[in-house]
Amino acid sequence: QAQLVESGGGLVQPGGSLRLSCAASGSIFSIMGWYRQAPGKQRELVASITSSGMANYADSVKGRFTISRDNAKNTVYLQMNSLKPEDTAVYYCNGYRLGRSSWGQGTQVTVSS
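Request: output the structure for the sequence above.
Response:
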């Protein structure tokens, strides 16, 4: 049974930074990514990365967020800089392998002064 455990969320002021981590166990995922869901909105892709390191970003976070992956630790990271209030959401880690998706429990990120 695959498991994904996120950490690193919290409260930060606008313009600040946070780093999210997601440790995977039970499976090696070909693609890992971060999604977010704000209140009243649909869950959206923030960034994803393949096992070879190819990254993809939502337009809203390009130039501010960086996704990275440590295959040896089976962990994916999301470095978030220049945070804005509209980045406030629950952030979910996702792992994809052989047609199946696994999700973490989510971590809250709140950007507010």
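The radius of gyration is 13 Å.
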